[in-house]
Design goal:
This protein is α/β, with parallel strands linked by helices. Helix content is 39%, strand content 26%. Among the domains are: 3-133, N Utilization Substance Protein A, Chain:P, domain 4 (2-Layer Sandwich); 143-204, OB fold (Dihydrolipoamide Acetyltransferase, E2P); 206-280, K homology (KH) domain (GMP Synthetase, Chain A, domain 3, 2-Layer Sandwich), CATH 3.30.300.20. Strands 5-6-7-9-8 form a 5-stranded mixed barrel. Strands 1, 2, 3 and 4 form a 4-stranded mixed beta sheet that branches. The longest helix is centred in the N-terminal third of the chain and has 28 residues, at 108-135. Monomer. Binds directly to the core enzyme of the DNA-dependent RNA polymerase and to nascent RNA. One of its GO terms (cellular component) is cytosol. Residues 139-204 form the S1 motif domain. Keywords: Cytoplasm, RNA-binding, Transcription, Transcription antitermination, Transcription regulation, Transcription termination.
Length: 414
């Protein structure tokens, strides 16, 4: 393989990858200078000129002419007068000899090694380009096509044939993809594994939801509405706190759109994830009230030291505050950065009830906490439910629930 073929093949690749000309020339020069050092020990007195467009290569060895008896005659950048005149008969001592070195003079083995080095540099450059491209896109939405579905991940291909990975843990539980499907996700991170870039995508990240809002709501994209915080239970429920610095703009209304037109597009992409858009406020009690929507809160007590909030609701609002699977109260707690405890509010006409804490001697503390997590904080709030309801709402065993019913009923029988 001659220099022309080497240079032209590399230049063609470089152009296809949008490599700038200076980088392309620098890599080529590095490869040829490595050849020179291998043969002549140093490349300091060599001039390498490359014309990538034409595939031309010129290598000149530059040496100063010295007397045949000079002590410097063995220096790598010196040449004897006798040897110089073999190149050009009218050379004189002190002049510089520019001797052209043809690629063939390095030998077939050296040229083959240069080819391998160039191929490796091409591969390394391609990896660097891919890494840098996606490193700059972290947190941005990309679309890619599914080409292989594995047990723990889905492999996708972008428009340039690069492999992207969507791990099982970064997929929405309801996601079902087939080969050839186009998938939207954000670039979650870019890792280097054994020198190879590994591009990880995500559909469960709150950032993915934020980018979808930017795509669907111009006011968010333009910065007129700010997304303060997003918390998600992917595929189930999400809460988005928004605010606007312009009093003329209703941030919640703008995000939802006319008849829900804007948010419906986001919901469809997230496999019908239930999205609550909440108007952010610095008033903590009001913020908590909004975060627990659609439940209507009666009263709130805040404990700043323990970072806990006690919320009191009417009996028919407790299940709404907790939500299906406990997602509503869990996400509300994350949104306001406080642990929220839900309590059932008794009115003056209700019979006297007993707080579950009063049964601490008979019922273990962790069981009481498990019941409280589902909004059951009094004896009667537990007794109004069936065994099947408690099994579904808690992680308690059937025998444990039977014992709880026995203890609580005994209290009222007495």
């Amino acid at each position: 393989m001659d220099a022309k073929i080497l240079i032209e093949s590399f230049a063609e690749f470089a152009r296809s990858k949008n490599v700038d000309r200076p980088t392309m020339i620098r890599i080529l020069e590095d490869v040829f200078r490595a050849m020179i050092r291998k043969k002549f020990e140093s490349d300091e007195n060599f001039d390498v000129t490359i014309n990538a467009d034409k595939g031309d290569l010129e290598i000149f060895r530059i040496r100063e002419i010295v007397d045949d008896n000079s002590e410097d005659i063995w220096d790598f950048d010196k040449i004897s007068l006798t040897d110089a005149r073999k190149i050009e008969p009218d050379f004189e001592i002190g002049e510089e000899v520019y001797e052209k070195i043809e690629l063939e003079e390095f030998g077939r083995r050296a040229v083959q090694m240069a080819r391998q080095t160039l191929i490796q540099r091409i591969k390394d450059l391609e990896k660097d380009i891919l890494y840098n491209k996606y490193e700059e896109q972290v947190g941005e939405i990309v679309s890619a096509e599914v080409y292989q579905i594995l047990g723990r991940e889905i492999l996708l291909m972008d428009g340039e044939g690069n492999e992207l990975i969507l791990p099982k843990g970064e997929q929405i539980p309801k996601d079902r993809f087939r080969k050839g499907d186009t998938v939207k996700a954000i670039v979650h991170r870019v890792d280097m594994m054994n020198g190879n870039p590994k591009i990880i995508l995500s559909r469960t990240s709150p950032v993915f939801l934020e980018r979808l809002f930017e795509n669907e709501v111009p006011e968010v994209y333009d910065g007129l509405i700010t997304i303060v915080k997003i918390v998600r239970e992917p595929g189930e429920r999400a809460k988005v706190a928004v605010e606007s610095y312009d009093d003329r703009i209703d941030p919640v209304g703008a995000c939802v759109g006319m008849k829900g037109s804007r948010i419906h597009a986001v919901v469809r992409e997230l496999q019908n994830e239930n999205i609550d858009v909440i108007n952010f406020t610095d008033n903590l009690e009001l913020y908590v009230t909004r975060a627990l929507s659609p439940a209507k809160v009666s009263s709130i007590t805040v404990n700043q030291e323990t970072k806990r909030i006690s919320v009191f609701l009417k009996p028919d609002q407790v299940s709404l505050a907790i939500g299906k699977g406990g997602f509503n109260i869990k996400l509300a707690s994350k949104l306001v950065d406080y642990e929220i405890d839900v309590f059932r509010e008794l009115n003056e006409y209700e019979e006297e009830d007993v707080d579950l804490v009063e049964f601490g001697d008979e019922i273990e503390g962790w069981i009481i906490e498990e019941l409280k997590k589902t909004g059951l904080d009094t004896a009667k709030s537990v007794l109004t439910l069936s065994k099947e309801d408690l099994l579904r709402r808690t992680e308690l065993e059937e025998e444990t629930i039977d014992e709880i019913f026995r203890i609580l009923r005994q209290e009222f029988e007495q």
